[in-house]
Amino acid sequence: MKFIKPLIGARLEKRYKRFLADVKLEHDGTELTAHCPNTGAMTGCAEPGMRVWLSDSNNPKRKYRYTWELAETSTGDRICIHTHRANTVAGEALQQGLVPAYADVKAWRAEVKYGSDNRRIDWIGEDTEGRSVYIEVKSVTLAESTGDGFFPDTTSIRATQHLHSLIEMTSAGHRAGVLYVVLHSGIERVSAAAHIDPTYADTVALARTHGVQFHALQCAISQHGIDPVGELPVM
């Protein structure tokens, strides 16, 4: 996934009201408020003083012209905080065959309604045996210095509901999985965050017994784009 044009460097002053971030542009010191496209806790991703990068909508009529895309930690790790980028990157990886478990799947489509609750699946394809393959995409940015990454970064009833929907699909004879898109360059492996959301972690264990698969995608992150690289282990 390439950004339309290189991002703009800034320094983070504060993130607040979930969707807003005050920043100071590096090139001229201008202070402005940018849109923050992340509803999570953003632990370790939104520390005042962090170097950040913004995309410019070039729309002066938009209330918040700039969107916060990336952050850099004090140790130099890059993070994509824009959670919606995960779906695009996941789609590229699936279509390029970078997740070997789904190399036999074709005709990937995004945002298709499914299941008894009529929710939308992030990606759906069809394997060589004619089975539907349902993929739920999750963005992972919560990292520890050990290289461990965790999902979710806050209690997520919605994420647990998604797992139950995937269980419903495997019980009906389809294939289903969760693809964790790792948007933090310091993460080397991914686990369910039992210390944050034990219900989600328990449901992951249940989903595995029903045949739901779990994979994690490593990404190369820069101000020019986010490129899928390959798999990381899911613990």
From TrEMBL:
<dbReference type="Pfam" id="PF17746">
    <property type="entry name" value="SfsA_N"/>
</dbReference>
<feature type="domain" description="Sugar fermentation stimulation protein C-terminal">
    <location>
        <begin position="85"/>
        <end position="224"/>
    </location>
</feature>
<dbReference type="InterPro" id="IPR040452">
    <property type="entry name" value="SfsA_C"/>
</dbReference>
<protein>
    <recommendedName>
        <fullName>Sugar fermentation stimulation protein homolog</fullName>
    </recommendedName>
</protein>
<comment type="similarity">
    <text>Belongs to the SfsA family.</text>
</comment>
<dbReference type="Pfam" id="PF03749">
    <property type="entry name" value="SfsA"/>
</dbReference>
<dbReference type="GO" id="GO:0003677">
    <property type="term" value="F:DNA binding"/>
</dbReference>
<dbReference type="InterPro" id="IPR041465">
    <property type="entry name" value="SfsA_N"/>
</dbReference>
<dbReference type="InterPro" id="IPR005224">
    <property type="entry name" value="SfsA"/>
</dbReference>
<feature type="domain" description="SfsA N-terminal OB">
    <location>
        <begin position="14"/>
        <end position="80"/>
    </location>
</feature>
